[in-house]
Design goal:
The protein has ten helices and twelve strands. By secondary structure, the protein is of the alpha/beta class.
Length: about 325
């Protein structure tokens, strides 16, 4: 299996030179027995923002391509932030309307999974407004879009075989007491920082330790200082996760912003941090977990996927 996966990755990397490649089935080469927490998963931060319009683009846009294009590039983790507006859940980034509904976003991913049954994806939800009503409605919309057999049941040691053709939902908001929810809720998200003590808890009581890093800003005090501090936190988690205990999950955000108002420098910051990780991964041969990114280039997505060659030993 490892040899087949290596051949697949080499083929994809070769084809991607000078032309965009459709990574419809890169997970086909992953061993069924591989635990999902040990898969290196390229992801996007605020995944639904390609549709943000002027003048909010410079403030809130973190992705150039839509969800369909992200999937085709190999992305398998999607960060969706629904906000309740006039009885409907719309994707927002802060105050910026992304001009796509939460249901539309989920339907795109459902269609991809149906066409590619060897694949799986992970969706993180984080309410962008609307209070507890919006959080509970988020759970309801997910259940109305995906049939039960496409919603993965969470366990710390769940495997690739458990996930094929399915979506795992990770919620950063807790539903109302007693409400059943798909996937898992994060307890103790680190906010603007890092944590090794967060937990992922399912509605049936399964749980896992989550190591997370989401240092997204220093308040605009220093662009260079922030980027260096951010990089220190990214690499610290990469190094620690390489020898993490069994069953530990990892979400390591590359995303972040400096500045304020309509000048948040998201794209320029991404160029720096993404390039640093690409260079770093040239000498790294261990899983790095889930990596949400702003404006990820294909070469970096390729490099994260390629790490699974070593996990398949």
């Amino acid at each position: 299996m490892k040899r087949n996966f290596t051949i697949l990755i080499i083929l994809l990397l070769t084809l991607s030179a000078g032309a965009q490649t459709v990574y419809e089935g890169w997970m086909a080469g992953l061993p069924d027995s591989l635990e999902v927490c040990r898969v290196s998963v390229p992801g996007t931060h605020d995944s639904g923002t390609s549709g943000v319009r002027f003048p909010m683009r410079h403030y809130a846009r973190t992705q150039k391509t839509d969800l369909d294009g992200q999937w085709d590039a190999g992305i398998r983790f999607f960060d969706l932030r629904p906000r309740l507006e006039d009885g409907n859940l719309l994707i927002y980034h802060g105050p910026a309307d992304c001009h796509i509904t939460f249901r539309e976003a989920l339907l795109m991913l459902k269609a991809k999974l149906e066409l590619n049954p060897t694949e799986f994806c992970i969706v993180m939800t984080n309410s962008a407004g609307g209070g507890q009503t919006a959080v509970d409605m988020t759970m309801d919309v997910i259940n109305s879009v995906f049939p039960l057999n496409m919603l993965a049941k969470f366990r710390a040691d769940m495997t690739v075989a458990d996930m094929r053709g399915r979506v795992l939902i990770i919620h950063r908001d807790s539903p109302s007491a007693g409400k059943d929810y798909p996937g898992t809720v994060v307890a103790g998200w680190p906010g603007n920082g890092s944590s090794r003590q967060s937990r992922m808890v399912s509605s049936d009581g399964n749980s896992a330790v989550l190591w997370a890093q989401d240092f997204f800003t220093d308040g605009g005090r220093s662009k260079t200082g922030y980027l260096n501090s951010k990089w220190d936190k990214v690499t610290a988690l990469v190094r620690e996760f390489a020898s993490a205990p069994e069953g530990v999950w990892c979400i390591n955000h590359l995303s972040g912003y400096t500045g304020s108002g309509i000048s948040t420098n998201i794209k320029r910051n991404a160029r720096t941090t993404n390039a640093r990780l690409l260079e770093y991964l040239g000498n790294h041969k261990k899983p790095i977990g889930i990596v949400p990114m702003d404006f990820p280039q294909q070469e970096l997505i390729d490099a994260i996927i390629f790490l699974n060659t070593f996990a398949a030993d």
